[in-house]
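#struct-help
A.M.: can someone run this one for me? Single chain, 387 residues.
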Amino acid sequence: MPLPRRLIPALVPSCLLALGITLAPATLANGNACPGAAPGQWQATDGTPISTPVLLSELATQRVVLLGEQHDRLAHHRWQLHTLAGLHAHQPDLVIGLEMLPREAQPALDAWVAGELDETAFLEASDWHRHWGFDPGLYLPILHFARMHRLPLLALNVTPALRQRLASEGWEAVPSAERHAITPPAPPPAAYRDTLSEVFRAHSSGADDEAALARFIDAQLVWDRAMATALAEASAPGRLVVGLMGQGHLGHGVPHQLHDLGIEAQRSLLPWASLSCEPPPRELADAHFLLGDEAPFEPLAPPRLGVWVNGAEDGVRVEGIGPDSLAERLGLEVGDIILRAAGQALRRPSDLTALVGRQPPGSLMPLEIRRDGSVWELLARFPSASE
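D.P.: on it. Structure tokens below:
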């Protein structure tokens, strides 16, 4: 989705170029330069610099703007906060949508914005740790921004149980009221199916399991459609709805579903590490914000088991195993049912994510596994800080 042609004249002579200032390329520690990569700069999909005031003014005229993220990157959430502040200055009627929570958490979001809950009470009322396995501290500055300005926060997601039900049973089998009146997703472009297939096979030792691949793609489409529906329902002329979500939902994901729902006035934005010298994924966003070296400020990477899991009747089912992962070294296999972790029964994938995320370096976590009717225990040892 290229930027509209009326923006093109502003792209070439950016603010700095108009003043006769040449943008210096970013330089790595080894002295190599990344041509055209200046931290703090917006770029169009062709790499042309964009004036920040011009870009934000244009974005404020849209119905929906999507801000992509890598969930565990602190710099990405800082960028989202700064971008939200700029957009709010141009469009006071602003709504912030969150992939992180399902619709069942909407009352907690409303109470938070109204000032009725403190942080601890909000995290408990929204069931944050069960719904979203990432540190709430990454998102709290954005939540406080919304609360300070009394901006509505919107739960975009649905529960994993509903995603699995729709993906496995089909849309006609689930009454409209039980699926929040979400309509079936538009068929995805072939390129999106190919991308999702690559993601699945890159993270799954069961690369030939076509049934698991189909479930993975169907679940992703449910996810995209659910978020697009919530964004479309909240949009209105003169109002800007900004959705925060993982960058994998951009491109042919949520934007494609928004188009199907009649939302043409939309844009997608993404931060990118300018010092990597790698071009950003042009197909995912209409513009990119170039980050500098934020590595010293990033938190330590959370512990990972290295599995993709889906809900099961009495636990979570292993759908894929990452290569050279802790799960692979443990001997987990596709099709295993993880019944318990750290002594706690698992009801949904986020239960496992949350438990793994709380494991300190060097700790041991018992897993109760069922395979072919037999149940036994494995002991997962997470690497120590030195490892």
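A.M.: thanks! The longest strand covers residues 94-102.
D.P.: also worth noting: Residues 284 and 302 are 26 Å apart (CA to CA).
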